[in-house]
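User: I'm curious what two different proteins look like when written out as structure tokens. Can you demonstrate?

Assistant: Sure. I'll show them one after the other, since each token string lines up with its own sequence. Here's the first protein:
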Amino acid sequence: MQTVATKPTASQILAAKKAAKKSTQQERALKRAGTVKNVDRNRLSTSSKAQKENIAEMLSGAKVSEDEALTCSIMMWLSLQDMRYACNQELINFAEHIIKQVQRLGLYCNTDDPANEKSVEFACREASQAVAQWTKDFDNLSPNQRQLVLRPLQNLFAAYEAFLKDAPARLIAEVSTYSLAVRVAKKAMTFLELDGGLISAVDKVISGADSRAQARRLKMPYAEFTDRILHAANLLYDVGIQADKELSAMYGKPLNPVRPQRISDVRQPMMKMLTANKGGALIQAVKDSEDIIRHCDNGTGFSCFNWTKHFKRAANLIGLMKQENLLKA
């Protein structure tokens, strides 16, 4: 039994905790040192130098033309005005596209100012949350209330408009391409993660099968079935519209895509091209978007794409596919 005389004091307990913490930090530092011990320092130095040079080139050169900057500004403010009265995927996609561009611009332009970088991240996060709330509560809000909810997005648009007045054209082209590649990757993965029975039904409806028969097969009310099929088809549309030229070349003539709003729209050529050969074009679209994102990330040394989450989703999909193949066997 410990007596009062031998019981450690508060200062001794605090000192012991500090010593333990320091020991843990030292152990972690040793582990990290061991991890990078065999890395080719010359290779790292060369890569870092190339990335810095690439960033410097992105931040210099010809500026965005006045016409291009004005066109983008008009599109932003018209879009924001439309969001007071309508809620559709085109408006959501455009808002997300601008947000992702600003997010990546923040990484480019604030490499020496962590505080400013966090400020940009916060602004992008607030704008994303505003769009999500606007989408969720749209029917319960008045036009003025919607405008109030979208204030963070309005602030982001204003900041982007100001940046465009003196922005390097090459930098804007890169962040725009990056944003679209991220969209394709996310939309395609979301489609592939849908219930296997629903994906099969989408494929059959695209091929001309009776939609009501497919709803009965899935034991689903037709209204619910239609909503889910159209949701899936809109995911495909958002992927296919970015590869319209490639898909048109495969088809042999222009696809003339339209955003699916009814079952008949699901049977359009773009959907057929994306789902042909077990979704070969869809899978290729994911790979192409990955290549674009990876190229941009490797060229700068920074990323605003969640690779960990992306690869985890891919691993889960592969696991599900293997499981389905075993069940079929």
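Here's a second, unrelated protein for contrast:
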Amino acid sequence: MSALTHLALILFSLVLLPAQAASSYDNALSYQPEQQILPTLPVLEQKALAENKLLLVALGASWCHDSVALLERFAEPTLAAALAERFEIVLVDVAYLQYGQATTTRYQLPLYYGTPTVMIIDPSNRQLLNKPDLMQWTNAASFDEGAYQQYFLTTHFKQQFAATQQPALTEAAQQHIRDFEEQQAATLAMGYQHLSPLLAAYETDPQADRTEFMAVWDEVKRFRGSIIADVQALQQAAMLDAHSPLKIPSYNEFSFLKPADADKEKTN
């Protein structure tokens, strides 16, 4: 091999190297089955703690446009490098809404309320730091690179969390609000259970009937989108008037509840 040919091969390999590295990184950045992720979480929490990082847990799915958009942003080289400096990143596949709850309950959230759900976690105590922002990132595709950089790279999550705490709330009020959220999460889980096979058929079978899927999808979407806002409204009401009973929001009857489940909802 001549010296000129050898030099040409070296230059060609240098040109290919960044593209190959980016491609390898893109392939590695994907939502992983929850069954595989769960056993690794204690180790990842300890790793984040040892490296003075936060834990970033994103729950999404390949069928979800916004979930895919989130990963595409996270894979952009500049942002990817900065994220790696600040976070230990965990990506959980919720499949067709069958999975994810075991992950969220570990971090003090009874269920995810959309995809993707991006949770920022303090690894020292598994505290969810960004609960008020969770619904924002279910619209991940609508944000530009600047919005990603501002949120993920400049937000002081621990300070923000401390500022949003309501020490004035009585323990009784806090428990009442927690019970409300857990009840709504349990109802939403029933909605996901009913929706799951319809969603799978919608995504994989061109001949599947879309009518029932779209009706249930819209119903579940409206409901899941209201839960965190209703929880926040209850917290504000309890702060303004600690002596009056909380006015618990009511919802229309859900089509996805079986008769026995609907009766149970009315008694709660």
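A detail about the second structure: The radius of gyration is 22 Å.
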